[in-house]
Amino acid sequence: MYRGTTPTLTLELDTDVSLADLAEMWVTFKTPNAEVNKTLSDVTIDDTTKTIEVPLSQQDTLAINNRSCAVQVRFKTTEGQAYATTISNIDVENILKDGVI
Question: Which of 1, 47, 88, 101 is at a distance of 20 to 30 A from 95, taking alpha carbons?
């Protein structure tokens, strides 16, 4: 992922839990100096493939100012069961001209 761009990241969850009717979800991108959170209303979920599409804005990716970014998904079912994924890392490439274009 490049800073200052607008990627849509596809995250695949290794779970048997139905993602069709979730009560809450947080996708957190974290570096030592920044944290970007996306909620259930921000993402697109495919229960069949167990994937989550997470669109990021320029502001989101510019906030991630480190070469590596930790990512974790947490969600709660409508029955109240809470789950978390293992923390993964995404490589973040820098840009020469900083700022929103």
Answer: 88
